[in-house]
Each structure stands twice: as structure tokens, then as C-alpha cells.
Specification:
Blueprint lengths: L9 H5 L2 E6 L3 E4 L5 E5 L2 E5 L5
Antiparallel strand pairs: 1-4, 2-3
């Protein structure tokens, strides 16, 4: 039997998630040399996973 993916129990794995702010967005240049948002990430705090 092959395991293709694992679906975690969100409440047990992460507990309560709280928004902790945004990281700096990453911009790239497109072919017309304009700044384009490439990615944005958010910081979250968990009461189960301590870091």
C-alpha cells in the first residue's frame, strides 16, 4: 500500500493559530521592467507548536 499524502488533524497539529504580522513582500521585475509582487507571507503563532 502506497501512501500518497497525509491529512493532519488541524486542531491537534496546530491548535489555535493567531495572526502575528506580515513578512516583507518579495518583488520581481516583469519583462517591461515594472515591479511585480512575487510572493507575500504571513507569520502565525500556534498554542500547540512552540518556537
Amino acid at each position: 500500500m502506497e501512501m500518497k499524502y497525509v491529512v493532519p488533524d488541524m486542531a491537534q497539529s496546530f491548535g489555535t493559530l493567531e495572526f502575528a504580522g506580515e513578512s516583507e513582500p518579495v518583488f520581481e521585475r516583469d519583462k517591461n521592467n515594472r515591479r511585480v509582487l512575487a510572493r507575500r507571507s504571513y507569520n502565525l503563532y500556534s498554542d500547540v507548536q512552540k518556537g
